[in-house]
Amino acid sequence: MEAKLVERLEAAVARLETLAVGGGVSSRGLPDIGVDMSSDPSIMAFNDLMDQYAAKVSAAAEKIGGQVLDVTKLLLEAFSVEKQLLMEIKQTQKPDMAGFAEFLEPLNEVIMIVTAKAEQRGSEFFNHFKSAAESLSALAWIAYTGKDCGMSMPIAHVEESWQAAEFYTNKVLVEYKSKDPNHVEWAKALKELYLPGLRDYVKSHYPLGPVWNASGKKVSAAPSKAPPPPAAPCPPPASHFCSESSKPSSSQPKQGMSAVFQEINSNNVTTGLRKVTDDMKSKNRTDRSGVVSTSEKKPRSSPATTAPKVGTPKLELQMGRKWVVENQIGIKNLVIDDCDAKQSVYVFGCKDSVLQIQGKVNNITLDKCTKMGVVFKDVVAAFEIVNCNVVEAQCQGIAPTISVDNTSGAQLYLSKDSLEASITTAKSIDINVLVPGADSNSDWAEHPLPQQYIHVYKNDQFETSPVSHSGA
Q: What ranges does the record list as Low complexity composition bias (predicted)?
């Protein structure tokens, strides 16, 4: 099977090389462009994208060489194929689904080749391969045909595709940070190629998807010249551009609930069911009676209690803007030190842990945490506690706004610089605020926030005041 896959991939590479060099290709490749599109604004902008961003990726890959250079060449080849497709779109009518799949096949071939390389887990450059393969799905924005096509809008699609790839580029950055700067340069250049490179290009020229030429030539699927080969035991990687919708629904086996309804609507719904004979009916069974015997009752064994599922622990920076801390259990030395005022911190599902944020950030949110402690310096916007139980937070700098929502038990330690913070509570109990004493030798002063209120109707409106308790 592997030999057949390699042979198929080599054939696809040869066809793409013919496309890049010779201009004309086979009926299953890209047609010749009869009009000079080099002066078209969107094509010129794509050339600028390649010169400004793709050149950096290529230069970094040249320094590394080997397999990284090979996969980078394939990645840039995919961009070149996409450029050819964009030029062809301007001269072509929008095809039907079968013709659409045929039209996008050259791009899909390159993506499949890179995806196949990414499946080689034994390679020391596995993370490089996965970065390239996952990122290439961003080029599928060209397949967007409208809100009902099942894809995100082009700009959002590019951003979402890069998020999947960034998981692996971050691994490259961590692995080679102190080993080889060329790999770090490659990972950063790859990100710039998509964000802001491809994203800004799509935003400027194709925010609603490609624009076809209503008066252009037609594209149709190439006729089949030979019967399809027998199915291989292990199919090649799936296409990024699904063409299954072009097949008649009757030719595809239905799955899930569709199969259930299809079976119900058929005349064979009772096929295979066992017939209930008279001796099987409860009223005729001798081993059953209407008397309930207490001696026959056995205590029902309760199923073994299973521990609640816990997600994968995370402590990572996503998209360069958001620190995500998730599912940390019993870790007392969590630290975020490389942060800035444009980034936010989101802490979710942590238990019995302590997080230190050593720098100014824009916003901090604790969500569904239990017995969690957070120590932070400055926040630009707000510090928020939502859906938590028994948490502690200490502000060592400035926090203009603190909000507590649907939380049971929170201890807030304020610094002298944050005493003017605006504190908002909702649906929360046992909220205590501790402020520093008059001098460094004084103890913290604890102030419980009220959780009961009296509402009195006066002067055509309700007046609300907290309940005050007086002790004997």
A: 245-255
**Cis? peptide before 95, omega within 30° of 0:** no
SS3 329: strand
Give CA 5 to chain center in angstroms.
30
356 with 335: CB under 8 angstroms?
yes
d(CA 151, CA 157): 7
* Angle subtended by helix axes 97-118 and 66-89, to nearest 10: 170
Over the stretch 439-465, which tens digit does the pLDDT of each residue have? 777 788 889 998 888 889 988 899 888
> Mean of the pLDDT values across residues 238-267?
50
pLDDT single digits (tens) 116-147: 877 776 778 888 998 999 999 899 888 888 87
Q: How far apart are CA 37 and CA 45, in angstroms?
A: 12
pLDDT reported for residue 328? 94
How far from 71 is each of 114, 130, 135, 173, 186, CA to CA, in Å? 7, 10, 12, 18, 12
* Cα 105 from chain centroid (whole Å): 26
Exposed/middle/buried for residue 155 (C-beta within 10 Å: 0-12, 13-18, 19+): middle
Q: Does residue 300 surpass a pLDDT of 80? A: no
Residues 163 and 138: their CA atoms lie apart, in Å, by: 10
pLDDT digits (tens, 9 = 90+) for 64-103: 999 899 999 999 999 999 999 888 888 888 888 777 788 8
Strand 334-336 to 351-357 pairing: parallel
Tokens of 411: 């201890």
The Cα-based distances of 199 to 110, 202, 216 in angstroms read: 20, 5, 28
Q: For residue 405, what is the DSSP state?
A: E
What are the tokens at 115? 């995806």
Token pair for 124: 């020391």
Q: Is the pLDDT of residue 297 over 60?
A: no
Residue 182, pLDDT above cutoff 60: yes
Q: Is 236 left (phi over 0), alpha (psi -120 to 50) or beta?
A: beta
pLDDT above 70 covers a percentage of the chain that reads 71
Which run of H or E residues covers position 8?
Answer: helix 2-22
Rounded to whole angstroms, how far apart are CA atoms 403 and 383?
A: 6
Sign (positive or negative) of CA dihedral 118, 30, 195, 313: negative
